[in-house]
Amino acid sequence: MNNLFIDDRAIEFMKKAIDSEKASAMRIFTSGGGCCKQFEITPVNKALTGDVAFMEGGITVYIEKTIADDTGTVSINFNENKGLLIEFG
Fold it and tell me: Contact at 8 Å (CB) between 44 and 23?
């Protein structure tokens, strides 16, 4: 993975989530299994083994190794109705 882009509204939303959970970063990871895998983002206090760390807009984002290995770019945007939207490219 080469790039992480986060829009300003997503940065604000993520900073509030980190503060409210008394965390230090956000983490993007896959959950579920088989055909029902989904991507999640949550406040965390530390990375897991193999996570790739990025700094953007004053926050740290840890990205699960398998996502980082298979993705060139991650974009995170905020939508009033849907919350955080993660796009991979």
Answer: yes
> Residue 49 has which token pair?
């083994």
DSSP conformational letter for 47: P
- Whole-model pTM: value is 0.91
Architecture of domain 3-88: Sandwich (2.60)
Q: What Å distances lie between residue 76 and 2, 13, 81, CA to CA?
A: 14, 11, 15
Sign of the C-alpha dihedral, residues 43, 80, 31, 61? negative
Please report which residue ranges of 1-89 form alpha helices under DSSP H: 8-20, 65-70
Q: What is the pLDDT along the chain (89 residues), one digit of tens a residue?
A: 889 999 999 999 999 999 999 999 999 999 887 777 788 999 999 999 999 999 999 999 999 999 999 999 999 999 999 999 999 88
Q: What are phi and psi of 16, to 5 degrees?
A: -65, -40
Domain limits of the chain?
3-88
